[in-house]
Each structure stands twice: as structure tokens, then as C-alpha cells.
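Sequence in, structure out. First:
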Amino acid sequence: RKAAKREIPVATLDLDQTCHSLVRLLTMKIALFLTAIAGASAFAPASQPARAASQLNAGELEGLRGVGPETAGKIFDPLELAKWAPVEHLRKAELANGRSAMLATVGWLFPKVVGTFDGPVDTTDPIAAFSKADPQWWAQFIIFCGTIEAVKYRAEFEGKSYTGEVDKEAAIDWAKQWGKMDAAKREDIAMKEIKNGRLAMIGIASFAANYFIPGSVPGLSEGF
């Protein structure tokens, strides 16, 4: 006796055909997608290797103002920040921090040497003075800083410079002396500003370290 044929339900056949169709469709879409990516990357600019970017920034560092005996006659960049940020941005940040540090150093020393003015701030402790200052003073200080920044950036759009570029007009020149100087004198003044700013950053960091960790800085007494 012949064995009975096994009949496969029509619904099962339809399901298998549907799955195969979906797989073929999905495979086709993936192939088209990968082809599109390959075609797009053929026209996209090649990404610059990190080494090439490093060499580019190294070229920008050549001749950068600030090299001297204290930096062993070469660019001082132990953390290699120039690899990851534009050199112009780093120079602007250095100048901004140096100028702030010079003001902070004077502010730290002034009450200890000269004394305090009449008012709520009657301490020579620079940290304690923060909490004694009236809140409106801080508001005025923040507004003043914001105004100075706005003046700087507006002047930069006008072609002026606030980083000591000798061939440009100064963004802020209270004494009206920058325009009277020749290129050599401007370069000398700009170099002094950078070096004094660096010294002030080291100085104010030393004052703060000695304040919070007494004796951590040789030559500074406790509580200075």
C-alpha cells in the first residue's frame, strides 16, 4: 500500500514565502544602504589624521610670541594642548587668564599692605572678604566683566585686536598710547604682558595653595 502523501497546509506555505520575501527585501535594502554610504564617502573630504593636525598646529606655533629663557627658548606646551585646540584660542585664553591673575594678585596683596576701606569688608583675609562683600557689588562686577567682553568682541569684528597684534589698532587703549608706538615697542609691550600674566598666574596659585595648605609654598608665612 502506497504511503499517503503528507499535505502541507497552504497557510504554512504562504508564511514561508512571506518570510523569504522579507529577507530578500531586507538584504536588498541593506546592500543599497551600504552602496550609498560608499558612494557618499567617495566624495566626502578625507578626515585629517591626528598627526597631520599636530604638524599643522606645530607650524602655527613657530614664531609665536612668548618664547624666552624661562621656556628654554622653545614653545612650552607640556600637555600638548595645541593638538586639540586652535592656537589662536589658546593664546586668547592665556592672555585673559593672565590679565585676571594680575588683577587678582593686586587684590590679594592690597589689603594686607595698604589696609581696607570703610565699609562692610573689614578683613584682610582675601577668602573671608568674599562673603562680606555686598551682593550688589558682585552684580556690578559681573556686569562690568560682561561689558568689557562685549567691547572686546565688537572691536575684533571691527578689525581691532585685544591680543597685542602689532599691525592692528588696540581694542581697548585707555591711555591712547598704542597708536603712538612703533612695531618694535608694541612687540616689547605685548611680550611683557604675556610674561607678567604668566608670573601672576603662578603667583596667585601659590597664594591660594598656601592659604588652604599652610606651609605648602616655601617663603610664604601661614595665613598670607
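Second:
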Amino acid sequence: MQVRNTFLHFDEEQEGDLGASRRASSIPPAARLSPTISYAEPEQGPTRSPSPVRSEPEFPSDYDNLPALVQRLVDRPATQGVTTIMVRNVPNKYTQRLLLRVWKQMGYGCAIDLFYLPMDFRNKCNLGYCFLNFVSAEYAVKFRAEVEGMRLTTFKTPKVLVTAEAHIQGFLPNFTAFRNSAVMGKSVAPEYQPLVCDPATGKEVTIPRPTSGPKPAPAPGP
């Protein structure tokens, strides 16, 4: 381990395909969303992570009695254009909070209102991709221009980031899809659940569970 530019740098293990132990978790946490969210393989090779292609939540969302921070974001007018971005090739040792800190240090703390880094529960490492929603399409365009082809430096890795438009667009559709998904089950630790971020204050909270209750998450493992 060496200290460089105020960050701790680690030599990262060979990542590529994590092999049989990763494949043993046949249903990744991000794919344990509501059965009405289908998944499709991206076009750029079999090692890419699946991404949602539509959103029709199984449970009706209750938008009353939300925490004030969340209610304020839910009540905003819908934004126009592409605001939700998927980032692939995230080094597997990043946690959700650590990766969000990277985006904030790049100046996007005032622009991100929802963030999710799916995790492999058993191996306690991320699945290599994340979703961000921005307060405007302009921020999303700027973010993609800056991040595309970038190499994260907290951990030593050959991976370069690749960005794409997410299939589910906008804060409220993503909030609803995640809130009514298996990832919000009581068996899922809060650090593995999607985050709502207040662009005005920088405060982060996990998405509140729906009063109707999400579908229970399958136990991690083969």
C-alpha cells in the first residue's frame, strides 16, 4: 500500500470476470428488482453487466409521509431530456459511498439526486456498474464528456469507464422502480441500497421503504 495525492492506493486483484465465485451468485442484487423490470445484455461483450429496460413497479408507491429531504425531490417538476446515466467498468473494490465521494470531488455534488452501485452481497464487492440521476440534462452531458474513458485512481486498475444512457430515465421513475424492488427488502443492508442525494445540502439518505413492502430479496449464494 502507498499513499499518493492524499488517496490510499491499492494494487487491485485481477478483476476481469471474477470466475466461478461471482457466477455462483446467479441473480445479482441489481437484477433482483421487481419482476416487471426486465434485463438485457449490453451489446459490448458478455462481461458487461445487465441493465434495466423498462419500469412498471409491482407495488404502488406511497409518496406521502416521506422524509422532508426526499419529499422535496419527489415533488419537483419532471426534468426534460436524458438525466440518468449508467457507468460501466467500475473497479470492483469501490463501495457506494466511496464512489459517490469521487463524483462529488469532481464537482457533481450539486448535480446528483439519486445514486446506486449494485453489489454482490456474498463477495461484498460491486458488480462493475452504477446509475446516477442528474438534476438536469446539461449536467448529464457534462458528466459523460468528463468520465468517458477515465480511469479511477483510488485502486490500481487497468479499467477505463464507459458511460451510456440508462433505460429508465428521470428521478421519479428510478426512485419508484428502486423503492418497489427487492433491493429495498429488510434483509438488504442499508449500505447496499440506492441513495437519494440532496443537491442543495449534499446530504444522503437511503430510499425509504414503501409502506406496502417490496418483494423479499432472495438470499445471496448459489
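Remark: The CA atoms of residues 11 and 156 lie 5 Å apart.
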